[in-house]
Amino acid sequence: MKKYLSFFRMRFLTGLQYRAAAAAGIATQFAWGFLEILVYRAFYQADAAAFPMEFSAVVNYIWLQQALLALFVPWLMETEIFSAIVDGNVAYELCRPVHIYHMWFARLLAHRISSALLRCAPILFISLFLPAPYGLTLPTDPLTGILFLLTLILGTLITVSIGVVIYICCFFTISAQGIRIFYSAACELLAGQIVPLPFMPDVIRRVLEILPFASMQNVPLRVFSGDLCGHQLVWAIALQLFWLAVLMAAGWRFAVHAETRIVVQGG
Amino acid sequence: MKRSRKREKKISAIRLYRRYVGIHIRSTMQYKTSFLLTTVGQFIFSFNVLIGITFLFNRFHQVADFTYSEVLICYAIVLMEFALAEMFGRGFDLFSGMVKHGEFDRVLVRPRNEILQVLGSKFELSRIGRMFQAVIVFIYGLLTADIDWNRWKVMTVVLMLIGGSLLFAGIFMIQAGMCFFTLEGLEFMNILTDAAREYGKYPVSIYGKPVLLFCTFLVPYALIQYYPLLVILGRTARLWYSFLPLAAAMFLIPCLLFWRFGVRCYRSSGS
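Output (structure tokens, whole complex):
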């Protein structure tokens, strides 16, 4: 356990080095969040009755999405691992007395959490003080807050476990480019990063809600503003646990299988 | 005598640029799979945006008096403008690398205009993926929207494409000019580039008055999008709106001045 924690700490400290980049990123995310809210405001004004969520819930969804961007965006991966596979340095990784699955899992998780921690505080703080319909509204009861944290952790773990599967795929394809493009594009849409899932047509939404992508940011961000509650919430958490178990088991099996037939690139 | 030499120089500049483009296309074609994947990637990512618009309109049918087809025309035109600017002006977009690695020193010692050389430093053919999609969406918008076309409107579209790509090119130039002072590329500049492309899919007016004013007088996005679009859709009698994209292209002048200023302040990073 200790060795994984130290991987975690290493990655975390590296992430903290890039504070200026984080500051610039925050300004950008503010602008994006703001424009996104204005889009939904325009649609709200066009036809308020067709709105599937409360307006404040959409605003919360957008601010949280911007603040926690680093936890869920599909393209955030460690390029060092991809280049290690291409240039053969992965041999060193395999020599370490830690299994690559656990190591890469810990590293990717740390990478995401450190980036998110750096960025989220200012965005959350400022958006809390924005005037009424455009600001972040905190959940009223502590239970919602606890459930939000729980689903947030589960969602992050699911995102990371898919990310590690992508890493391992590169043992077979060598070049990561193709997989990353297709995965990022699919994930962006299916996880509700382009349009929140409730805004999608009913038939499509019902299918997407079962997929693992819906267990990523969709659940915690909607729990936060009480949009997801009661039966649906219990079901969503159960589904999150299910997907996490399946993805981690599959990833582990996949990694073990890959290890037996790895060809290390010379160079 | 003097004039003819000037003209000669201009022609050879065009020939030189064509040479640059030729080299880039040939080098891209050495990695066909990579090129194909990037192009497809460009296509898919813009496709996601399109799906997003479609889902929202499936539910709401219209936004601020604009219908689905009308928004698609707007989206397609902005996407084309951006793709063109990016295809030709990518050198400016990637300029921070050039400054950081000291490559700009080499540019300065050559007996050629530095803007031409930076433009020639990269030609992004893969943006064809975006262009391709924009054209398809545009055609779909044309077929479904209720517009009676005439020569004036066709000219308006052409002016929008010219003005828009020049405006985006200007913004790339500012972005590059900043690198003279900061070395590092600045992420917040993509509020002006990527965000403009992303949110330019809707006519600027839907974002409300303050944003419209900002995009009319400060960074003239509305001039290449919202106002001429009104002419095309037949929403306004002010036909002179068609020429506003040319006014937006004037934005290039301060960008050029800023770039010149930056070049004068340039200090090599030495590496």
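The longest helix of chain A spans residues 142-173.
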